[in-house]
Design brief:
It comes from Stigmatella aurantiaca (strain DW4/3-1). By secondary structure, the chain is an alpha/beta fold. Helices cover 35% and strands 16% of the residues. Strands 1, 2, 3, 4, 5, 6, 7, 8, 9 and 10 form a ten-stranded mixed β-sheet that branches. The two termini are 23 Å apart.
Amino acid sequence: MPSSLTLRAGPGALRLLRERGLRAEDVDVLPGASGGPKWLVLAGLDRVLFGEFLRQPRSRPLHLIGSSIGSWRLACLAQKDPLAALERFSAAYLNQRYPPKPPPSLVSETSARILDALLGPNGAEDIVGHPWARLHVMTTLCRGPSASEQKGVLVAGLAVAALTNTLSRRTLALQMKRAVFHTAGDNSPFAGLRDLPTVHHPLTRENLRSALLASGSIPLVMSGVHIPGAPEGTYRDGGVLDYHPNLHFGPGEGLVLYPHFYPHVIPGWFDKSLRWRWKASDHLQRALFLSPSETFISRLPHGKIPDREDFVRFGDAERIRAWNTVREASQQLGEELRELLATGRIVDQIQPL
């Protein structure tokens, strides 16, 4: 039977893996990408990575950096019981229901309830006080038209951003700034990001929920968020600037372990149609991508990974049934990874990125 799991590695990662195999202690960074319901196809991988592989004793921090749904997944890993957090998250996420064309306020309220389920009673304390997991939540601080809650003004601002982005991602700085809330203190490996204007803020018990909610607040779909204690402004989805984090992942030779829906990265929200921006960058030299294979995806309901359009294409019952099937099928990805780790054959399955 064809493999369900695809592994691709950058040259630096491939050298390290050939020398040592895949060891939890060699992983320095775990990114989490935006993508809404797409995360369900990774649920089985997350269970093995969060609940088994990455729970091994560590002598140095593991930096978790994510945008939107990616930051929510990583917030599960940074809790004392990641599997319980993942179960709460998936149960709440799968059961969201909306009327046709729901207003942003309703989507925000529903998302806030899902986030509350994910965090449970002690999630904020677990994350802020975690002994080795350092969570970095990526948000987008907007100004000008992109900060407006008036639909027409916001649409105009986003349209201008999309147009100028075709020339250069740096033009996004005219309306937007990357704001990263994290628990790494002065030791964040991302402190030197220079590709776009970036500000860093401590992630605290008081602002954690708001920062995570902002990180997933899709423009036009959800309301903007104001984060307590942070500089005044409208914070929106971190995926606007960092759809699939493709950054300078910091110094060192450790691995960037990247569970991802695809074997490629799309840098920003406005780059989805700009295929020339999808190429592997030097930032991914140390990256190992774990992705579902095309064969695996073809066996999913409707032959695809879930996405936000499912809310429009299907009624609630059909959508929830399909998403549950995807979550159950994703266990195969986790089982294959577990077997590769146990047998030591993981290097034999890796392709160059």
